[in-house]
Specification:
Blueprint (H helix, E strand, L loop, with lengths): L3 H9 L3 H7 L1 E5 L1 H8 L5 E6 L1 H6 L8 E2 L2 H7 L8 E6 L12 E6 L4 H14 L3 E5 L8 H7 L7 E5 L1 H11 L4 E11 L9 E6 L7 H4 L4 E4 L13 H15 L2
Parallel strand pairs: 2-3, 5-6, 5-9, 6-7, 8-9, 8-10
Antiparallel strand pairs: 1-4, 2-4
């Protein structure tokens, strides 16, 4: 039986303010838990059901066996009958542009978008994502679920984005800063270089003016003549630009 202490803690971690205080977060479901157990994250507590154990008898980490009813009481998911882990957050460590590409996000609010961007970065081998402090929390369960395990392999750094760019311009002058804007040069006509930082902005408001002042090259995805959509989802746009960047990078 889950103790009241753990019930209270797990339920509190559904909210960002308590995740920030405790430096913990939740991972739920069979596949995410199995991937988590192969990662470098430290698991503070693992609750599993008999159903999970029958399907995965070789789990080596210490766990607490609970009923599916107990899991339902503490879970943020609607139908989690398998497992729930309380996990230690990693340190919010500075990520810098070495000989690679960093995706930087300015006010990305939708957890599904952030999770999908992490998945896209993971697919293309982009290992660093920088988010401004107003972007959605990495440890939001909707972000974790949307990332399909990619949050385990792509590192995120939350910071004041303007100060971060100032630091990079001063200390990594060879790094080019690109930004996706409606007025930018076509990605099909752009000669990309790395190290680089690619800034993607809020779908409704775009990239902040004070951020744009540090950008070396504004880029855009030209709409085909046959196209009718007014804009692209920021995650889809990120996938298109990253794909072209890696194909056309010198």
């Amino acid at each position: 039986m889950i103790s009241q202490k753990w019930k209270k803690l797990v339920k509190s971690l559904h909210q960002k303010k308590y995740r920030e205080v405790e430096k913990l977060f939740l991972v739920e479901g069979e596949k995410p838990i199995l991937e988590l157990l192969q990662s470098g994250f430290y698991v503070e507590k693992l609750f599993v059901s008999d159903l999970f154990l029958k399907k995965n008898p070789d789990v080596s980490l210490n766990f607490e066996l609970v009923s599916t009813q107990e899991l339902a009481q503490i879970s943020a998911m609607e139908n989690n009958q398998m497992a729930l882990a309380v996990v230690r957050q990693y340190e919010n460590t500075m990520l810098v542009p070495e000989n690679d590409l960093i995706v930087a996000l300015d006010n990305i609010q939708d957890p599904g978008n952030l999770g999908t961007i992490l998945r896209i970065c993971d697919w293309y081998g982009v290992k660093k994502v920088v988010c401004n402090n107003q972007s959605v929390d990495l440890y939001n369960l909707k972000v974790i679920n949307a990332s399909k395990g990619s949050f385990l392999r792509v590192r995120c750094f939350y910071t004041d984005l303007k100060n971060y760019l100032v630091y990079c311009v001063k200390n990594f002058s060879e790094a080019l800063i690109y930004a996706s804007t409606l007025q930018g040069k076509s990605i099909y006509e752009t000669s990309f270089q790395r190290p680089a930082i690619l800034i993607m902005g809020n779908e409704a408001r775009g990239i902040s003016e004070d951020i744009l002042s540090y950008v070396k090259q504004e880029i855009s995805i030209p709409r085909p003549m046959e196209g009718g959509a007014e804009s692209l989802n920021v995650a889809i746009a990120t996938a298109i630009i990253v794909d072209n960047f890696l194909q056309r990078c010198h």
